[in-house]
Amino acid sequence: MIVGILQARMGSTRLPGKVLMEILGRPLLQLQIERLKRSKLMDQLVVATTESPLDNAVENLCSLIEVPCFRGSENDVLDRYYQAARKYDAEYIVRLTGDDPLSDPELVDRMINKMLIEGCDALSNSFQPTYPEGLDATILSFKALKKAWSGARLQSQREHVTPYIFAENSDFNVYHFRQKRDDSKLRWTVDYEEDFRLIEQIYNALYLKNPSFTTDDVYALLDKDPLLKSLNSKFFRNAGLIESQKYDEEV
Fold first, then answer.
1. How many domains does the structure of the chain reveal?
2. Residue 72 is part of a domain; what is its CATH number?
3. CB 3, CB 43: distance < 8 Å
């Protein structure tokens, strides 16, 4: 069983409530789920939110669009993933985050296929990034997730799920999924208001013509209008992880 676990919550520190901010009358989370449902290799997609009353709204959306919703720890996201994976009998877990409304289901399937071929513990395109931030995904075996859940002690490792597995001194067998060109400076994620404005313009330009628009369509739009790229270019990659590492302590 290959289970996509999409973490999403209302209590984002940089842009609170972002997962339910609307474009074209639909919440960002719903738009992302629409895209991910086109994956041919994920057997199940689950939204993993928190037990906070704020996230009742996330559960309500999931109920409305008929997507399973798991509720767990707000701060120990690694535990939230592990408990969700156990509940849904996952052999492999696709880790996804609810601030990536341009998630690419074809890329996810290529990554899953590569994971199955390599037989590794974990595969990711975000630790040696070449794709735009916002197309991030990590594939984990359940055994690797369980080992991380048991062994991770630092706050950043619990909050961000995968750093324990991809640490330089780890004994996990990991694979870095890369493309030939380096687009890692592009931001297609939503952490700030400027990010949202970029995604909004992309959806306004592409979604009504073709709700199943592709990553190549996004590239073509940005090539046609390079000023769009500058809307959020002042922000840097993995700001949340870097910030949490400053305050690392054992938990």
1. 1
2. 3.90.550.10
3. yes
